[in-house]
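*** Fold description ***
***
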Amino acid sequence: MASLKTPEIAQFGPVIDGVMPQLRSHREDTERARSVATESISAIKAAGLMRLLVPAPNGGFEAPLRSQVFACMETARACPATSWVMMVCGAHSWVSAGFSDACREEVFADGPDIMIAGTLASQGQFRPEEGGWRVSGRWQYCSGVDHSPWLLIGAARADGVSGPQSLHVIVPRSDVEVDDTWYTLGMHGSGSKDILLHDVFVPEHRAMPTGKLFTGHSPHAAAQQSGHYFVPVLCSLGTQLAGSILGMAKEMLELFVERTRVRPDIYSGEGAGAKARSAGIQRRVAEATGEIVCAESLLDLNCRAFDQVAQERTPPDMPTQARIRWQATYATELCRRAADRLFVGAGAHAAYDGEALQQYYRDIMMATRHAIVDVDSSAELEGSLTLGVDAAG
C-alpha cells in the first residue's frame, strides 16, 4: 500500500509525535480564539517543522516536498487549524526560494523558523515607482497572519502602466492592515482574515514576476543546492493542501470507529456495539477507508513526481502539471466524500458544538473549498488534455 511515510521521511516521525500532545491540548483554544494558540505555534517552531522547506543558506532543511505533505497530514490529526497554518506558511517559505538572496536574508534575518503568511491570488494592484513598486488592495484568506512577521502576496498590473502582468511581493507585517472577517463554517482556528495594503512601497529586491516565480524558472530558485524548487508553484500547492485534508479525514475515521464500536441503538434497545454490527455502518467504514487509502496513494504519486523533478532539475511539462493538480484535487474530493459518509452515519450526538467529529467535518468541508483544489476546473483541464480537446471550446 502506498504511503507518504517513506524511509527517508520516517526521520520526521518522532519529531512530529513529540508535538502532537501539545497541539491536541490546545485545539479547542485555537477553535474558540479563531487563531492558532501561541503554544501550538511555539511547539511546531521548536520541533523545526517551520524550517522544512526553507532554503539551506537561510538555515532551513531544504527538505523534499514530501516531508511537508507528511508533516501536515500528521499534525492535522491533532489540530486541523495548526496544520493548515503550518502548511500555508511553509509553502510560502518554499516559494521564497524564488526571490533574491537579499530578500531572503531580510526575511529570515531572525532565523528560519519565522512564518510567512499571505495569499497568492493576485487580488490587489501594483504600479511601478523608482526602485520598486507601489502596491494597494484587499486580499482575502490570509491564514496565519496573526503569527507572521512577513507576508507573501500577489498583485496584478494596474491599468495604463508598464511592467509584468502580475507580481508577487514580500512585505513586512507592519505595512499591512488586518481586517477580521473570518467568521465561517469551518477552519475557525486558521485565522484567515483579510489584509489591506494602502499604497505600500515594495523595493525591487522583494518582488518577482509571477511568471518566473510560479513556473519553476526563477534563477534564484535554480541557484539553490537541491532541485526541490523547480516544481511549479501551482503544481505543488494542491498537494501540500491535500496533505492537511488527508490528516483530517484520517482522524475523523478513527473518531468514528472509536465511537461506533460502543454506540448503542436507542430505538432497538440493543446495547453497546449495536451500531457496529449494522451492515450499513460497516459499509460506510469500508468505503471511507478505501477513499482515504486511495487519496494517500494519489498524494504519494505526486510526491514521487516532485522527487523526479528535483532529480532532473527541470520543471515538468504542462500535461504532467495538470495530472499532478488533478490527483491532488481528487485526493481532497475523496477525503470530502469519506467525511460526508461518516458524518451522515455518526448520529445526532455528533452534531453538537464541542464534538470533535463535528469540528473535523466542518473543517474538511471548508478546506476543500480552496480554489487550488476546485474539482470542476481541475477535472475539466485533466479531461480535456486526456481527450486532446480545447477545454475552452
The mean pLDDT is 95. The chain has 13 helices and seven strands. The domain at 116-209 is CATH 2.40.110.10 (Butyryl-CoA Dehydrogenase, subunit A; domain 2). The CA atoms of residues 326 and 356 lie 30 Å apart.
